[in-house]
C-alpha cells in the first residue's frame, strides 16, 4: 500500500477515503489506494477538487449519480470512488478498463 501511517496522519481530510477515520490504520487497505486513484482521475477530468471534505463528498455523490456521463473513463472513475470500499475495482480491473478505453480510442482513429 502506498498510503502509510505518516501519510495517513498528515493527509488532508478531503483526500481520506470515507471508510477511514482519524489515524485509522486498521482499516487501511488497497481500496484506499484505489480511492486515491479515483480522486486523482476525477481531478484530471474536472480540473480541481473541492477544498472542504463536505464539499468533496457532495461533489462525488453528485458525480456518481449523474447519468449524463456515459464514457468508459467516467464509469471507471465512478467505480473507484465508490463509498463502499468492497465495490471498488482492484488494480487489475482498472488496468483492464484503461486498456479497453485505449483500444476503443485506437479503433476510432
Main β-sheet, in a few words? none
The CATH architecture: Orthogonal Bundle
Helical coverage, percent range = 55-70%
Low-confidence stretches: none
Order of helices and strands: HHHHH
Shape assignment: globular
Strand content: under 5%
Which structural category do the helix and sheet elements fall into? mainly alpha
Separation of termini? 37 Å
Report the C-alpha radius of gyration, rounded. 14 Å
Total domains, how many?
1
Mean pLDDT: 77
CATH fold-level topology: Transferase(Phosphotransferase), domain 1
CATH class: Mainly Alpha
User: What is the number of E strands?
Assistant: 0
* The CATH H-level homologous superfamily: Transferase(Phosphotransferase) domain 1
| Count of DSSP H/I helices | 5
GO molecular function, one term: protein kinase activity
Organism: Meloidogyne incognita (Southern root-knot nematode worm)
Protein name: Protein kinase domain-containing protein
Domain Protein kinase: 1-102
Amino acid at each position: 500500500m502506498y498510503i502509510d501511517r505518516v501519510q495517513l496522519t498528515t493527509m488532508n481530510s478531503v483526500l481520506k477515503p470515507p471508510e477511514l477515520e482519524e489515524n485509522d490504520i486498521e482499516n487501511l487497505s488497497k481500496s484506499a489506494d484505489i480511492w486515491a486513484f479515483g480522486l486523482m482521475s476525477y481531478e484530471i477530468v474536472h480540473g480541481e477538487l473541492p477544498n472542504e471534505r463536505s464539499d468533496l463528498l457532495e461533489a462525488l455523490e453528485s458525480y456518481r449519480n449523474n447519468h449524463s456521463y456515459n464514457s468508459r473513463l467516467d464509469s471507471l472513475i465512478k467505480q473507484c470512488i465508490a463509498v463502499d470500499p468492497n465495490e471498488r475495482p482492484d488494480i487489475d480491473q482498472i488496468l483492464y478498463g484503461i486498456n479497453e478505453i485505449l483500444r476503443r480510442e485506437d479503433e476510432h482513429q
